[in-house]
Design goal:
Blueprint lengths: L1 E6 L3 H16 L3 E7 L9 E2 L2 E5 L1 H7 L4 E5 L4 H11 L5 E2 L2 E2 L4 E2 L3 E2 L5 E2 L4 E2 L3 E3 L4 E2 L4 E2 L4 E2 L4 E2 L4 E2 L4 E2 L4 E2 L4 E2 L4 E2 L4 E2 L4 E2 L7 E4 L4 E5 L8
Parallel strand pairs: 1-2, 1-5, 2-4, 5-6, 7-10, 8-11, 9-12, 10-13, 11-14, 12-15, 13-16, 14-17, 15-18, 16-19, 18-21, 19-22, 20-23, 22-24
Antiparallel strand pairs: 3-4, 24-25
Length: 221
Amino acid sequence: MQKVVVIGAGGFGRETLEVLKDMNKAKKQWDILGFIDDNPAIHGTTINKMPVLGGTDWLIANHRGEIGCVIGMGDPGVKKRIVAKLKPAGVRFVNAIHPTVVMSEFVEMGEDVIICAGCILTVNIKMGSHIILNLNCTVGHDTVLEDFVSVQPTVKINGRNVLREGVYVGTGATFIHNVSVGEWTTIGAGACVVKDIPAHVTAVGVPANKIWKKEEVEGGH
């Protein structure tokens, strides 16, 4: 069995743990060691019956190529910084796909992809790495999701949509056919995207409109 840890002991990290456990119920494949979290106050504690082993420095020192990880954190910028630290150290990333997910054979994906219960992915979809599809999302044909896209529960992504690197989509947002969202943009909860949205902005409402431009933040985006 593959040894695995969940990075992040917060709310979504605990939900990611349950995805791994449900995968084991369907077919035993993970030896779940516990959580990794950079908050030293919780090191050595137990959360949801699993130990917090230490921070990312612990994982770098102890993985020995034998421990895979999945990042159970929803913030794309935080995830990118963690990956930038772990990947050069040779830490491996794994995917966590809930057994209830409906997905065709014509879906491509990278590593550290988390797809939660109830999601449906149709055909000819291309997904990068370090992506989250939270509960009960749908993704239509010929859609592209680039690295570090984070999609919250019940989002409806239509056919031929393109979500560029680092896009964050709030709960319940919807997309019409054949629209794109620029890199490191946030789509607000409940928004309806009916036209292309540029990079580095926040867009909310029905229809979704740009409301402000994000300032550049540390981490390359």
